Amino acid sequence: MFSECFSDLQNMFIKILILIVSGMFCLNILFLFSGNGYFLLHINTKMNIKRYFTAISLFLFVLNIKQMFGQHQLFPLFLQPPEPQFQSLPQKQPNGHSPNEKLKMCCATLNEADADCKNRFCDFSALSSNNVLFFLSTCNGRGPTVGQMWDCASTRADHSGCCSALGVQSGCMTYCETTNGVPTDYFRYLFCLHDFNKIRDCFMYHLIDQPNLKGEL
């Protein structure tokens, strides 16, 4: 009961924070078109977009501190990650390594990706709703790291059918159809946080019986 209440409270705080950031963005738009040249925060550079992005990531990181120092795993937010939701999908016969092992095997081949990011984030737990922004804000500026690790997780496959079955909202389906690689619209991540566990589960579901991006089982 306590775990469920805490999870609901945590989700409420995240939604409130998203509303605040969205409001700040809208106010900047109003000031931009008012012609007076004054802004609450500049929005016309990638650096300032990253500031919004990093602020939310830091919020999630602070919530994560207790778990980081209390257990060996980095990613669960006070609680263990929720069980994958693909049990409602047609059952698959496992083929080869587990989905998480296939992900790690793929990441091990990424010679151009940042080693620290691979060690810390090459795990499906990093794609949870609670942690994806922390991963992106930490590794986004480290060469091709984010794109390559995202490709390993998604296998650059079309997961639209799985995402639809799990109830991913239509505006977030761009993260399910991954044949074109990692999305670059950072603000959309904010509005799709609620669906990232489902999207992550679809990536895992695909790898149950399919090889990873490098063809490894």
From TrEMBL:
InterPro entries: DB. It holds the Pfam family DB. The chain crosses the membrane at residues 12-40, 52-69. Residues 106-203 form the Domain of unknown function DB domain. Keywords: Membrane, Transmembrane, Transmembrane helix. The keyword Membrane applies. The keyword Transmembrane helix applies. It comes from the Eukaryota. This is Domain of unknown function DB domain-containing protein. The lineage of its organism: Eukaryota, Metazoa, Ecdysozoa, Nematoda, Chromadorea.
